[in-house]
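Annual report, structural modelling task.

Input specification for the fe (ii) ion complex:
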Amino acid sequence: MALLPLCHRDEIPDGAARGFLPLPEALRRVIVVRRGQRLDAYMDSCPHYTGGTPMAWRRDAYLNGDGTHLACHAHCALFDIDTGDCVSGPCLGRKLTRVTLTEDQVGYLSVPAHVAGCAARKE
Amino acid sequence: MRIIGPDYLVFGVDDLEGAKTYLQDFGLKPVQLDATGWLYEALDGTGVVIRHRDDPRLPAPLPTKNMLRQQVFGVEDAATLDVIEAEMSKDRRVNRLADGAIEFQDVLGFELRFQITTRRELNMPAEKINAPGAPAQRGPNELGVWDGMPALPRSLSHVVLFVPDIDKMVEFYTRRLGFVITDILTGAGPFLRPAANDDHHTHFFIRTPAYMQGCEHLAFHMGGPTELMVAGDRFTRKGYQSFWGPGRHKFGSNWFWYFNSPLGVHFEYDADMDKHDDAWVAREAPNGPEASQMFLLQWREKWAPGGGPEGGPKG
Ligand code: FES
Ligand SMILES: [Fe+2]
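The model returned the following structure:
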């Protein structure tokens, strides 16, 4: 399986999220959230509207003010960081698209190549 | 009833510092109201008030997580406040405040406040264009664009609300507050303007389930399409996230560019909206990509042809 590199795990501060374009021409970023040693990754694509839309309000600003949830800053949707489930807001009942992270022996993270062409919300 | 439109919108936010930075970068000017509240104003004094969501000075929150707390409407005169007070007192509680403003909830529980408008009259030219066949708007040596040209929001233009019961809402704003429907996007909802405002819309209602009730976006008028593009380009370069646009809507003819925000609503730059009077007959079109825009563009990094093959132009 072809992999695309994102970053080293230390480039994501504990308790924060960052967005990475897996390729310069990719349709959507991949969001990586770090809590302690745990990393979760999702497509930067809110499931509220068909096609999915970017969720941050500024580069890398993906969490709500309290840092407890991933948030879509288009209409206040909140998502559980563990599962990607929408827990409040317009896309209640839908979820973020999880991305499989691969980590090498020294902590470099990569994602499957197909995510570079991925934008659409999963129906 | 001489209602002009929204003077400002009040939000209770969870990220106060983020919201302050955002509003300033968007082009609004901060005015500290008291120890815990800030007004971010456009050139005419309309704008957005923010406080932390736990601030006791805020009106009660909506049952949803939406951060909108109150819409503050400006009216022309004290007589209008009296008429609204009398009308609303028929079936709901109205608070008359020390400064003469009145507060009450609308039919779906949105908090409203009406006051004699605080907006300042603006006296500045619209964007000028030159075209064959028409007198030049810019004289000799007058430039259309330059580095550092101003591109600041001039006035709070409109508010879009997610509403669970659109029929009740339309009846309340038209019959009880004298708003006029200018156009309807079937499946979404109507555009409305109040009696003392000739803009195509100060409000647009979108039909949604109850768990979405709140503000969808708010918009500020710019001096013209070029100012809109310049402001949006600068905002994008600062790292803010475009949501939709730039483009030009069909109903209202206004140019648009929407951005995500830490207030959980979109902030829109708009420009060059249609004006209407009571002779206008509302149009209706099915909501969708075709009806909602004349054209849609997307921002990209500056690029220019160059660096091509030998003998071609050099980059
Ligand atoms: S687009 Fe994400 S909540 Fe509406
Ligand atoms: Fe708008």
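The mean pLDDT of chain A is 93.
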